[in-house]
């Protein structure tokens, strides 16, 4: 946990090629060299396309706008909304993970300033319920989102079928309102109405996005690649602010790869596909860092298990996180290139 923060993006060729043999987890057979480079290059391409979309005007073909803008679409397509208050113990646990980050960013971690928004695809309509679940904590006043769960209808469908094609809902029969960006956009609006908040609170103020953990092992694997330091084959990301990657231009390869993670794609689409409802916003910084999970409802570190090494203890109790910073405007470094 003592590794120094990465001062920024590595040189493109050095990071993309890297020295795969230096990585601890690679040497244990987790990924071969071909997959190592492919994961990076594909993530960079996704991130570049998203950065271009965020810079493009809503009239551009590079920024296709969502057709889901009516809050009534949530019930129409089978989504239920649950709002939990500040007495939610699980909420308090999640807020406690980001104490250091909140201090530096001057974000209030008082649970009374936060709302938990859970959106579950569990209502029978013309589409089969999947129990897809999107769970976030939101501080509307300070424009901060923490993603607690991001399990899409497609992923829930895959899990429920257990790989059996007979049990799997065909892709063309899955509920069309299923992307995190669309469901959360409508959820934010509906929650604001129920909470008596004004619409400008949603349209103008989102600045901070935290993950409370990765979507899956593939996303963690990608973040290991992004945060690597060839001069110090590290095994754990550092504490906040972690390894920080500014989004500057198309040479910002690690920042763009961060945008190419599942959480990066979700956040970029939230702003990029709803440009007419949000003020223009870009993601200008990404961080990858670790927090230590606490014991039960306490703020005390978890104790080592019998026979557990220090490395094993850190790996078991460390929660990997991604942070994205948003601001108004455009970067101006990813000009639209409509065909």
β-strand amount:
15-25%
Number of strands: 8
* Uncertain regions spanning at least 5 consecutive residues: 1-7, 20-25, 230-234
* Rg, nearest Å: 20 Å
Helix-strand pattern, N to C?
A: HHHHEHHEEEHHHEHEHHEHE
Helicity range:
25-40%
Strands of the largest sheet, in order across it? Answer: 1-2-3-4-5-8-7-6
Question: Given the C-alpha coordinates, what overall shape results?
Answer: globular
Distance, first to last CA: 47 Å
Count of helix runs: 13
How would you state the average pLDDT, rounded?
A: 82
Main sheet overview: 8 strands, mixed
Structural class determined from secondary elements: alpha+beta
Provide a concise account of the structure shown.
This protein is α+β, with helices and mostly antiparallel strands and 339 residues long. It is built from 13 helices and eight strands.
Summarize the structure in words.
With 339 residues, the chain is an alpha+beta fold. It is built from 13 helices and 8 strands. Strands 1-2-3-4-5-8-7-6 form an 8-stranded mixed sheet, with helices on both faces. The longest helix is centred in the N-terminal third of the chain and has 23 residues. The N terminus is likely disordered.
């Amino acid at each position: 946990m003592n590794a120094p923060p990465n001062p920024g993006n590595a040189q493109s060729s050095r990071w993309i090629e890297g020295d795969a043999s230096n990585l601890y987890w690679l040497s244990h057979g987790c990924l071969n060299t071909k997959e190592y480079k492919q994961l990076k290059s594909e993530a960079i391409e996704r991130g570049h396309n998203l950065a271009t979309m965020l810079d493009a005007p809503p009239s551009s073909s590079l920024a296709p706008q969502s057709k889901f803008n009516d809050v009534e679409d949530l019930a129409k397509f089978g989504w239920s909304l649950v709002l939990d208050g500040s007495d939610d113990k699980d909420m308090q646990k999640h807020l406690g993970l980001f104490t250091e980050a909140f201090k530096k960013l001057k974000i209030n971690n008082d649970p009374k300033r936060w709302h938990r928004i859970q959106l579950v695809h569990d209502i029978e309509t013309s589409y089969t319920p999947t129990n897809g679940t999107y769970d976030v904590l939101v501080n509307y006043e300070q424009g901060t989102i923490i993603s607690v769960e991001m399990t899409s209808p497609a992923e829930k469908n895959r899990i429920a079928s257990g790989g059996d094609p007979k049990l799997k809902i065909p892709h063309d029969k899955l509920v069309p309102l299923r992307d995190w960006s669309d469901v959360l956009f409508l959820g934010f609006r509906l929650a604001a109405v129920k909470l008596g908040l004004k619409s400008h609170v949603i349209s103008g103020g989102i600045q901070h996005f935290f993950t409370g953990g990765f979507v899956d092992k593939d996303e963690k694997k990608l973040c290991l690649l992004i945060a690597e330091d060839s001069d110090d084959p590290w095994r754990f990301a550092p504490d906040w602010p972690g390894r920080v990657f500014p989004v500057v231009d198309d040479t910002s390869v690690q920042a763009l790869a961060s945008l190419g993670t599942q959480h990066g794609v979700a956040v970029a689409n939230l702003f990029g596909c709803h440009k007419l409802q949000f003020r223009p916003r870009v993601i200008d910084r990404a961080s990858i860092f670790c927090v230590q999970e606490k014991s039960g409802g306490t703020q005390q570190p978890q104790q080592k298990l019998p026979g557990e090494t220090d490395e094993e203890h850190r790996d078991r109790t460390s929660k990997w996180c991604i942070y994205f910073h948003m601001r108004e405007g455009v970067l101006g470094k990813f000009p639209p290139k409509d065909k």
